[in-house]
Amino acid sequence: MTDNPILTLDNVTKSFGPVTVIKGVTVNVYPGKVQVLLGENGAGKSTLIKMMAGVHQPDGGRILVDGEKVRLADTNASEALGIATIHQELNLVGSMTVAENICMGRFPRRFGLVDRRTMRNTAKAALDRIGLHIDVDHKVGELGIARQQLVEIAKALSLEARMLILDEPTAALTKREITALFAVVEDLRSRGVGMVFISHHLDEIAAIGNSVSVLRDGEFVAEVPADTSEDELVRLMVGRSIEQQFPRRRDYDGPADTLLEVNGLSTKGLINDVSFSVKAGEIVGLAGLMGAGRTEVLRAIAGVDPYVNGTVHVRGKELPKSSIGAAIRAGVGHVPEDRKAHGLVLGAPVNENIGYATLAATAKSGLVDRRGQRKRAQDVADKLRIRMQNLDQPVGSLSGGNQQKTVFARWIVTNSSVLLLDEPTRGVDVGAKVEIYELMNAITAAGGAVVMVSSELPEVLGMSDRILVMSGGHISGELAGGDVTQDAVMMLAVRDVQRDLEDKLMEDGHE
């Protein structure tokens, strides 16, 4: 295996209009090694990998492949040199089969028609290389996100890729799926495939990386070994140490009024007889395994999804079912699990995205108060330190953390007193996470209430005053104070799953 890099970004710079986003950065990617790119949202990681992928061309500096200067004019030029990118938003067509996705754009043909036998064999060979054994005639959209990700990797390898760019590949995976993905990465590394890896989970870096290039505000800060301590990585990323990872503060000293009360909430086949309440100044965490019903509870409360039984009261007033508008008017804000699909209009500017929930309430004589909307948006954007060129920048071009802060800004502008947060820090760097936690503190300090769903147990434990654990569509227990441990949460989370398995075994005649 050669010691020469497959690809080098040599002192590259990149500007968009008057804003310089990359300033003289050098990164090397070596065969059989994983180069981690680390930095806060907006640090320039995405721009760098887009240069590698041929999406952006540098304004200054050079790109070298095998030591030779190249111009990656587009993604085809990058792929032709053996460079493939696995984006966070997977580039697959759900209605097509696994085989069709792997061979897309280069279908084998015979007598002018697609040679399906050869296509299936090509797909099987690609899947075999990563140890994924699935039916190649299966529709990709019916696979889980982890298997879709592996199909993307198989597709890249079928192109004879010798360098893979993995952009937050673990963001939506379970721990078991992450372990399986890392086994594939390790196998590829042993075969000499070079990789670029981006992740906001610092604990993954030592497990998968060889070295780490740290970026801050578009500049190269340092290259350090992958086993560098998390505290030092954070210091390099944000320019300061973060003393407290979960800075929960309980500053509210007003009356403990009940702001949200949910009674007997049930939906068809998803959640069953869910009841709880949240008081002013309180953060209540909803924990549980994927599929336990946590997201469905928040969506029902927010008026997004219908429910067949139960009631939702905000400040003692019952909300009508399935009315997002009524929930907003009552002071309920909802930060959804998938901000890009359900929380933002990616092609619209930051200004409009912040103001969507207040268009009607602030209208004057039936007309949108554009000047007022813009002022309110600018004020809250400044308060939340949203990094952007200006309010007219499309929100889809912002980094993940700044997109998430834009969703929060919408509900701050509406003065929401009950905030429903579904995976609020997913895909967000450690610095932006702390800023989001401080937003939660500010909401509760002002007498608001927060219900938070998170799959990161340390986050739930660190930021919640009480934890409700869901299993099998209903609440299996509540934990507070000294009862709150990861083991206690997991015991409640799997309790009904184990019971269902035991009942199934009994039905099948097993003791």
Can you put this structure into words, describing what you see?
With about 500 residues, this protein is an alpha/beta fold. The protein folds into 3 domains: about 5-240, Rossmann fold (3-Layer(aba) Sandwich), CATH 3.40.50; about 255-330 and about 415-510, P-loop containing nucleotide triphosphate hydrolases (Rossmann fold, 3-Layer(aba) Sandwich); about 345-415, no CATH class. It is built from 17 helices and 22 strands. It has helices spanning about 45-55, 75-80, 100, 115-130, 145-160, 175-190, 200-210, 230-240, 295-300, 325-330, 340-345, 350-355, 370-385, 400-415, 430-445, 455-465, 485-505; strands at about 5-15, 20-30, 35-40, 60-65, 70, 85, 110, 115, 165, 195-200, 210-215, 220-225, 260-265, 275-280, 285-290, 310-315, 315-320, 330-335, 420, 450-455, 465-470, 475-480. The strands form 5 sheets. A 6-stranded mixed beta sheet has the order 6-9-10-3-11-12, sandwiched between helices. The longest helix has 22 residues, at about 485-505. It is globular. The mean pLDDT is about 90.
Structural key phrases:
single chain; 511 residues; alpha/beta; Rossmann fold; 3 domains; six-stranded mixed β-sheet; 22 strands
Low-confidence segments, ≥5 residues, pLDDT <50? none
Distance between the termini: 55 Å
Q: What's the shape?
A: globular
Strand order of the largest sheet: 6-9-10-3-11-12
The helix content is: 25-40%
Structural class: alpha/beta
Strand content: 15-25%
CATH superfamily of the largest domain: P-loop containing nucleotide triphosphate hydrolases
Strand elements, count: 22
* The top level CATH class name of the largest domain: Alpha Beta
Query: How many distinct folded domains?
Result: 3
CATH architecture grouping of the largest domain: 3-Layer(aba) Sandwich
Rg, Cα atoms, Å: 24 Å
